[in-house]
Automatic annotation (TrEMBL):
Belongs to the carbamate kinase family. This is Carbamate kinase. CDD domains: AAK_CK. One of its GO terms (cellular component) is cytosol. The keyword Amino-acid biosynthesis does not apply. GO terms for biological process: L-arginine deiminase pathway. Keywords: Kinase, Transferase. Residues 1-273 form the Aspartate/glutamate/uridylate kinase domain.
């Protein structure tokens, strides 16, 4: 099978952890431990988040006295692709000797007129108290919003339209390589009036980009892995209950939090609606169990899933 796995920012940096390289490298090794069995049997594309990391780089850049202007978010997004891509590349190569692994810088086309530029929703960087966030907003011109128990900076997150390097990713997959791409949702770009690509100030949602990419690659499965075993209905209430199997229409009839579960649900529904394939949201540690139908929230056109008929290896 051809599988696209979207690795949550939580997989790379758990809440409360300091964003030191060695902390994230250890988390990446744990992620790769979970994904390696999939790579051994299937064609595998790994995408990843960059919310915490791109916020750290933005702060560094804004504090650098040598710069006249801080680096814009397209440049910072490319930096996170290089950094996280390198960690994933090395961990995969160590865990899958003999297998080719490619980690590529890539761009995601968005629409210049997307209203999301004017209504920032994408959380970046670390968590602050309400008072700290208010001060940062006034000192640095940030937009800040509540995220769970704290406050974080938000930036515009236009909808991904197409991964520019889709053909290259397909070629790499067909050659047998594991491909790490679409990091941070891909570097956001538009085409100018001459048709040239040009970066824009935004951070694309990696789950939505993963759905666009998975569909364009004719993937069989889209796995969105994060720090919860299932999507919960009535999240945050005493009636919270795991959703095990669902149809896209069933999931879309429920409400999910913008900026966290909302885009993941949107991504898996979109993939299943467009392809008739299987998509799931679950825990990073359970990637193999999700495919076996033993964990996660599994979304299919009819809300049923038979691992024996779906999860066979794809001929390369
Ligand atoms: N309905 C829900 N079911 C489960 N988790 C939810 C739900 N709504 C919000 N969440 C929160 O979403 C988080 C996962 O989203 P997010 O933090 O954006 O993940 P990642 O960074 O891994 O992509 C969970 O840790 C949980 O706190
Ligand atoms: N770009 C992006 O979606 O990052 P996170 O998954 O870390 O929020």
């Amino acid at each position: 099978m051809r599988i696209v796995v979207a690795l949550g920012g939580n997989a790379l940096l758990q809440r409360g952890q300091k964003p030191d390289a060695e902390v994230q490298e250890a988390n990446v090794r744990r992620a790769v431990e979970s994904l390696a069995p999939l790579a051994a049997e299937h064609e595998l594309v790994v995408t990843h988040g960059n919310g915490p990391q791109v916020g750290v780089l933005a702060l560094q850049s804004a504090s650098d006295p040598h710069l006249t202007t801080p680096y814009p978010f397209d440049v910072l997004g490319a930096q996170t692709q290089g950094m996280i891509g390198y960690w994933l590349l090395q961990a995969m190569q160590n865990r899958l000797p003999g297998r080719q692994v490619a980690a590529i810088i890539n761009q995601t086309l968005v629409e210049a007129a997307d209203p999301a530029f004017a209504d920032p929703t994408k959380f970046v960087g670390e968590m602050y108290t309400r008072e700290q966030a208010a001060r940062l907003a006034s000192d640095r011109g940030w937009v800040v919003k509540p995220d769970g128990d704290g406050w974080r900076r938000v930036v515009g997150s236009p909808r991904p339209q197409r991964v520019v390097e889709t053909r290259l990713i397909r070629l790499l997959l067909e050659s047998g390589a594991v491909v790490v791409c679409a990091g941070g949702g891909g570097v956001p770009v538009i085409r100018d009036e001459r048709g040239d690509l040009q970066g824009v100030e935004a951070v694309v949602d990696k789950d939505l980009t993963s759905a666009v990419l998975a569909e364009a690659l004719d993937a069989d499965v889209l796995l969105v892995v994060t720090d919860v075993e299932h999507v919960l209905r009535d999240f945050g209430t005493p009636d919270a209950a795991p959703i095990l199997r669902e149809t896209p229409a069933g999931l879309r009839s429920l409400d999910f939090a913008a900026g966290s579960m909302g885009p993941k649900v949107d991504a898996v529904c979109r993939f299943v609606e467009l392809t008739g394939g299987m998509a799931a949201i679950g825990s990073l540690d359970d990637a193999v169990a999700i495919l076996a139908g033993e964990s996660g929230t599994i979304v299919t056109p009819n809300g049923r899933y038979d691992a024996a008929t779906t999860a066979g290896p794809r001929k390369r």
